[in-house]
Amino acid sequence: MEERNITISERVLGLLHRMPAFAGLSDSQITSLFVDKGLRYREYRAGETIIREGDHDSWVYSLISGQARVLAQEAEVAVLTTYGEIFGEMGPLRGRPRNASVVAQTNLACFAIDLSIFDRMPPDERKQASRLFEEVISDVVHDRLSRANLDAAALRRDLAMADAALTGVRAQVRDLESRIVALTRENQDLRRQCGKE
Q1: What whole-number percentage of the chain has pLDDT above 70?
Q2: Is 90 helix (H, G, I), strand (E, B) or coil?
Q3: Less CB within 10 Å around the terminal CB: N or C of the chain?
Q4: Under a CB-based contact definition with an 8 Å cutoff, are residues 70 and 102 in contact?
Q5: Per residue in 25-45, pLDDT tens?
C-alpha cells in the first residue's frame, strides 16, 4: 500500500464533489470534515487487503478507481466498482471490530478518511463535523439497505419459484415411485404365472 497525506485543493474538492456521498456538501463543509490531515490518498495492488475482518481501526474509505471484493467469513458478499463508493464505515462508526474484509481485486486507489480526527477537534467543530459525516454516512447506509431489501425480495421470489419447481418434481417422483411399485408387482405376478406353466 502506498499512502499520501493530501490537502484540500480545488482538484481534491472536485473529486470529492463527484462522489455521491459528498456531492451535496459545500466546499467549506468538505474542508471542515477533513481538516487536520484526516484525508489520505491510498493505492493498493491487486490482492492486497484493505480491511481485515475482526480488526479495530478508525478508517473509512471512498473508492476512486479499481475494484475490491468484500468478504465476510471468507465468502464474497459484494464487489465494489463504483467511483465514490464508501466502504468500511460500519466498524468505526459503531466502535466495533470489522465485520468483513475488503481485498483489492484490481489495482485500486481510494481516499482514506480517519474518523479519529473528530476526537482531535474542538467540541463545537467536532459536533458540526460529526453531524455532517453522519448525514453522509446515513445516505450511504440507506442506499445499501435499499439495495439489500431489493436483493432480499429477489431472493424470496427465486426461493418461491424454486420451491414451486421442487414441489412439482416431488409430485413427479412420487408418481414414478408409485409406477415402479406397480410395475414391480406386475413383474412379480408375471414371473409367478410363468413359473406355473
Answers
A1: 97
A2: helix
A3: C
A4: yes
A5: 888 888 877 766 678 999 999
Number of folded domains that form the chain: 1
**The domain containing residue 49 runs over which residues?**
2-122
* The three three-digit cell numbers of residue 64, written as one number: 476512486
Q: Quick one: which H or E segment has residue 190?
A: helix 123-196
Amino acid at 100: A
User: Taken in order 120, 122, 125, 128, is the CA torsion positive or negative?
Assistant: positive
Residue 186: count of CB within 10 angstroms of its CB: 10
Tell me what the mean pLDDT of segment 33-60 comes to: 89
Does some domain include residue 174?
A: no
CATH of the domain at 101: 2.60.120.10
The one-letter amino acid code at 92 reads P
User: Which of 8, 63, 57 lies closest to 35, judged by CA?
Assistant: 8
- Which distant-in-sequence residues (6+ apart) come within 8 Å of 18 by Cβ? 83, 84
Least confident window among 28-32, 62-66, 67-71, 175-179:
28-32
